[in-house]
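We now fix the convention by which a protein and its fold are recorded. Here is one such record, which you should read through line by line:

>
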Amino acid sequence: MALRTPLIIGNWKMHKTVAEAVAYVTAFLPQVAQMTDVEIGIAPVFTALSSVVASVQGSVLRVLAQDVAAEGPTGAFTGEVAAEMLREVGCHGVIIGHSERRRYYGETDTIVAAKVRRAFDAQLLPVACVGETLDEREAGTALPVVERQLRAIAGTLTPDEAPRIVIAYEPVWAIGTGRAATPELAQVMHRHLRATWEECFGAPAAAALRLLYGGSVTADNIAAFTSLPDVDGALVGGASLAPDGFARLVQRSQAASA
């Protein structure tokens, strides 16, 4: 198995003003400053990105955006933010295709794939999300649904890019519900994702691919996921909103994956 650096990302969604975001970083950084065996990211709202980037300079913390335009680098696309603009502000990467974007804003596999392409073109790290709904899970189609989503993303990449993307598996039925997937279920899906990536790009790319679990991740259950052989970290929602709680989650994830 390739050595994959664990990655934990806190997705703040539509929370925190600029002042609140800076205060969070001030409280959070001292608690994770000595953690060198795990990569840590936070994804603030667009309005706080510049201030948060300035606040984390010289630290271990990475800053990601929560979305990016499928178009660009410029154009008549009211309300959109281009990948190059995120790069200019100092973002390290961007979350793409989160289940809430797919569900509430109609993002299709095609749109998600286009956004991944734009992120790579702007030298941002794409964290691309895949996952099934409860109906799809109960119908027994979870694996083919997620594989379809993954192959759409794969179709936009070159062989050199394939090992460098991050894929986050988030069962839609577990987002914000308090109902996490079992570790066994997560491992089955992650193994399938890695096997699909191997079919698309070969064994070395699959071995290097970082796969995150997302879906009601907490400090109490994180170790059960990050100790799995094909889970390389987590995409964390509500449990990332308090700096002390998120620091504790990162610490426990690191201990489990050590």
User: Anything to note?
Assistant: Residues 25 and 180 are 27 Å apart (CA to CA).
